[in-house]
Amino acid sequence: MIEIAGLRKGYRRLRGGTHRALDGFDMLVEPGQVHGFLGPNGSGKTTTLRALLGLVRADAGEMRILGHSSPSALPQVIGRVGAIVESPQFFGNFSGRRMLSLLATAGGVPQTRVEEVLAQVGLRERGKDIIKTYSLGMKQRLAVASALLKAPELLILDEPANGLDPAGIREMRELVRALAAQGVTVLISSHILGEIQLICDSVTIISRGRRVLAGPVSGVLDDFDRGDFRIRVSDLPRAAQALSAAGVAVTAAPDHLVAHRVTEPARLTELLGGQGLWISELSPLTPDLESVFLRLTDTAPASGEAKQVDDSVLPPAPPSALNEFTVQPEVPR
Ligand SMILES: Nc1ncnc2c1ncn2[C@@H]1O[C@H](COP(=O)(O)OP(=O)(O)OP(=O)(O)O)[C@@H](O)[C@H]1O
């Protein structure tokens, strides 16, 4: 559905030089998937989506959307793609239904779609109310409804859960899953990692304009499973000593131990029990997307400190290249 290879985009800095927002970024989104696009603030997610949709010009790289080159062949394919990359501006004094009706007329979409998309996003009951009375979550759903008018095969959502409360996030999750069940491929950018883990089949993680990881969510988590187990036991120092002596790698925390690369947890109970050390807890520490993300994007702040994550700088461009952005030749096909 989406193929991106070697995408580059630099923004000129006011104080000279180029900020490398995308630095040879690659992404592949397969049909029928909900694909999460994860990255820290400023890592290049929105720039990627804007470049893909022809809203900003890339310096180099290849992009295909539904098999067509982007941006050159976008007009042929854009009718099959729904996207919310920038918050759409709605007329606050219009009802949701009237707003969608106007957008349907403008987009040459039959009016029958208006009721269908209102139902799809769960806004049929409130369709008659004016938009400025909508909650943020309802406005987000109206935005999704507007992107669904043309019954897209591919839906691109940039941070759809931004600003939503837990109930709103849950509604958005259910909506995305329902769309996926109807066969819509969804690309969803977010930094709400738990959310992505819950709704996505596969992910791409971007850091400093480059892909640092891609694959099915389950595979990603398995790859990062280090076989760590948390052990609570009455005498921590003695238990740590016993485990180390038996060749088990172990780290001590104030109230527990973590044993690493454990393949047979029963051996830990046997080993400690054999020395009169009784385990009160033995639990696997399975990785979640958040720990994988923090490790790969190097954005875990030290305690009490905010981490600088957006620091890719190129040397100043020569004067001739100081246009709006640095244009590099297209990569030949
Ligand atoms: N129009 C612009 N002019 C100059 N720099 C820009 C422009 N748009 C984005 N950038 C810079 O490019 C980098 C990537 O920005 P982008 O918005 O793509 O990141 P993002 O991953 O979407 O971040 P966030 O999660 O915070 O929305 C950032 O350093 C940003 O400041």
UniProtKB/TrEMBL annotation:
SMART domains, sorted: AAA (SM00382)
Pfam families in alphabetical order: ABC_tran (PF00005)
Claim: Heme is one of the keywords in the record: no
Keywords from the named record: ATP-binding, Nucleotide-binding, Transport
Annotated segments matching region Disordered: 303-333
Record domain ABC transporter: where: 2-233
InterPro entries, per database record: AAA+_ATPase, ABC_transporter-like_ATP-bd, ABC_transporter-like_CS, P-loop_NTPase
GO molecular function, one term: ATP binding
TM annotation in the entry: none
Family indicated by similarity: Belongs to the ABC transporter superfamily.
Protein name: ABC-2 type transport system ATP-binding protein
Organism whose genome encodes this protein: Catenuloplanes atrovinosus
Taxonomic path: Bacteria, Bacillati, Actinomycetota, Actinomycetes, Micromonosporales
